[in-house]
Amino acid sequence: MITLEPLFVGKNVIHFEAIHSTNTYATELISKTNPPEGTCIISDFQSAGKGQIGRYWHSEAGKNLLISFILYPKSLAATDQFYLNIISGLAVMDVVSSFCQDVSIKWPNDIYVQNKKIAGILVQNTLRGKDIKATIIGIGLNINETTFPQDLPNPTSLALENGEIHSIENIRILLAVRLEYYYNKLNAHHLASIKQQYLKHMYRKNIEGSFLLSDETKINGTITGIDNDGRLLILVEGQITAFAFREIRYVI
Ligand code: BTN
User: How far is the CA of 140 from the centre of ligand 1 (A)?
Assistant: First the structure.
């Protein structure tokens, strides 16, 4: 399944020992220059790693993969931008699945091993009218870190899951190969099959569970999928409702 070398994704590598954030650097880079499509920025450490909704992304120096890919998805309409989250989730899931069992994508695109988070993804799109001018796909994948800060709810890493130390560089190449594979599918307009894959691997799909709404109300419901805007669809008391990212969180 996995080819050995990507053709363009991850070919041009910009490496730092330490930087504020690979996503922030990528944003600065595309605002000033025109880096080749597939350029990736990696760093051994981030002093201001960016998580979703303004959170900080923790990673011990030299232990994990911290990477941002720059893509120019010309064939994707801005209204379909959630597919960039989908393909990044699928790519990371494939890589983690080479080493661990029971891997899933927790909406919108956290990668879970059983009930523990092994990777987070931050997709930042620059839109121009109805088009996507550029996208930055930032991925933090926990590889060799084995002790995490207490305040992180449920972290894990490849080393914690299978007791082995892994080559971060090898995993970077595997990831580039899988991202290129799904990106090519996206450019070939295979949107329906990409979405099917995502739905098949969604964490807790079709299983009743509890969720907290933004006003802290607790609801019980069953995830049925996502809508065209990438919102989470939950069946609650016979009715399906769509939730945006800031409107709901899982009770794990
Ligand atoms: C999340 O909150 O789950 C998303 C985390 C994304 C972290 C990665 S690490 C590499 C890239 N650079 C950043 O500053 N953030 C992303």
Answer: 5
